[in-house]
Amino acid sequence: MADSTSESNFFKNFLIPNYILVPGSEVDSTPNVPKCPVLVFINSKSGGQLGGELFVTYHTLLTENQVFDLGKEAPDKILRKIYFNFEKLKFDGDESATKIQERMRLVVAGGDGTAGWLLGVVSDLKLSHPPPIATMPLGTGNNLPFAFGWGKKNPGTDEVSVTSFLHDVMKAKEMKMDSWHILMRMRAPKEGSCDPIAPLELPHSLHAFHRVSETDKLDIEGCHTFRGGFWNYFSMGMDAQVSYAFHSERKLHPEKFKNQLVNQTTYAKLGCTQGWFSASLFHPSSRNIAQLAKVKIMKRYGQWQDLDVPPSIRSIVCLNLPSFSGGLNPWGTPNSKKLRDRDLTPPYVDDGLLEVVGFRDAWHGLVLLAPKGHGTRLAQAHRIRFEFQKGAADHTFMRIDGEPWKQPLPVDDDTVVVEISHLRQVDMLATHGCRSKSVYDPSSPSHHDTEEDDSNEEDYQQGEEFRKFGAADTFRIPDEVDISHLS
């Protein structure tokens, strides 16, 4: 009986009064102000059956109005409703509502795509007191949770596992994380399909500009302009090709991809069949990064410079987090000589810099398994631009936070441009085992003086739409899309 009472008291730390969650319901004059109020968002289709089982457990332990199935409700609608109610209650002098809002934390359970969706919504909505977010791993890669100490294995879904996770949520520290805006523009074809890429083939975070705002300055007549954002990485080349093959296979045979270990084994097999381990034999040099694109970087505002990419590089990765391909760290930690001679730093997640790394093939990637292994460090930059000219290849493969697509390349004298720039920051929750480092953390390795954030130095001219992910009201996942692909 004592254990039952103790457990009941523990969950009171997370319970939110109903009048906060359901606008218009009777206001509690003496509400309990929980120590760690949480809203829980779960992709019920992630992790095979685990997402559905996890939803049931959370629904049982917390109130039904603070646990949401992302397959049925979009997070922007939920957060808009609750935060609008917060503002109304605070205006009416409800001090408890103010304290609950200040203590609010979010939990999102799913793959990196699901987590990125919620992060983008929170970023776009610009809430008055944006809550920090804990990510619960339910996908294949789980790079986001791993980077902040939440692990990379699918968690248990029983009451004991959820209780343990909520203990960690209550004790977790807050930490800033950069986000990145991606802009992609290509000339509209004179013949054939209007859309160069089928809308449903694109990652959920990348979408056509004209569907957002036809008057936006970045929407140029005669061009297809896409934009979106990412938190973990953007990659291009052979690694994205293997990922595309995996996702294509999963779309055709979803019943075969219900188990995390099976998924990872299938991924490894596809790496072999796609020629990633024998790239010198099966991968034409015309598809090497240096032959595909001219790459420019911006280390300081207004100063673009060419990036010298070795001709053997077949894959390039722009990293925000020290976690890629299931937890590997391609950047590593540069030694003091490289810090001094090449102006490189450790991979901080809140310094406004992307780490740009290249790989020759999968064998080169295996060096990451060594204690100090890393890829070919190419640069760190506030911005990076890829300019694709007409060449031998008619397409390449790209990937944002685990979601790949097949990208058409110019067939005449036009150019396809992909530009990545710093967007803003969001608050994350990190455990004691967090692998990510903050530039403001006294325990982090020292480096050169941090420049002031220059992310607004140019975009002040571009209009408010440029400063959004488009994850909330500017972009909705179509009803016909199975959100299991976000896992």
UniProtKB/TrEMBL annotation:
Q: What is its EC number?
A: 2.7.1.107
Please name the SMART domains in this protein's record. Answer: DAGKa, DAGKc
The keyword Glycosyltransferase belongs to this UniProt entry's keyword annotation: no
Give any GO molecular function from the UniProt entry. Answer: ATP-dependent diacylglycerol kinase activity
Mark out the compositionally biased spans (Basic and acidic residues): 464-473
Q: Which domain of life is it from?
A: Eukaryota
Q: Which InterPro entries match?
A: ATP-NAD_kinase_N, DGK, Diacylglycerol_kin_accessory, Diacylglycerol_kinase_cat_dom, Diacylglycerol_kinase_pln, NAD/diacylglycerol_kinase_sf
Catalysed transformations (reactions) = a 1,2-diacyl-sn-glycerol + ATP = a 1,2-diacyl-sn-glycero-3-phosphate + ADP + H(+)
Q: What class of enzyme is it?
A: transferase
The record's region (Disordered) falls at: 435-473
Q: Does the keyword Lipid metabolism apply?
A: no
UniProt cross-references to Gene3D superfamilies, sorted A to Z: 2.60.200.40, Probable inorganic polyphosphate/atp-NAD kinase, domain 1 (3.40.50.10330)
Q: List compositional bias (Acidic residues) regions by residue number.
A: 451-462
Where is the DAGKc domain positioned along the sequence? 33-186
Looking at the UniProt record for this protein, which Gene Ontology cellular component terms does it annotate, in alphabetical order?
membrane
Q: Which UniProt keywords are given for this protein, alphabetically ordered?
A: ATP-binding, Kinase, Nucleotide-binding, Plant defense, Stress response, Transferase
Q: Which GO terms describe its biological process?
A: defense response; phospholipase C-activating G protein-coupled receptor signaling pathway
Q: Give the UniProt family note.
A: Belongs to the eukaryotic diacylglycerol kinase family.
Quote the subunit structure annotation.
Monomer.
Function of the protein: Phosphorylates the second messenger diacylglycerol (DAG) to generate phosphatidic acid (PA), another important signaling molecule. PA is required for plant development and responses to abiotic stress and pathogen attack. May be involved in the accumulation of PA during cold stress.
Query: PANTHER family attached here?
Result: DIACYLGLYCEROL KINASE, DIACYLGLYCEROL KINASE 5
The protein here is known as Diacylglycerol kinase
Q: To which species is this protein native?
A: Quillaja saponaria (Soap bark tree)
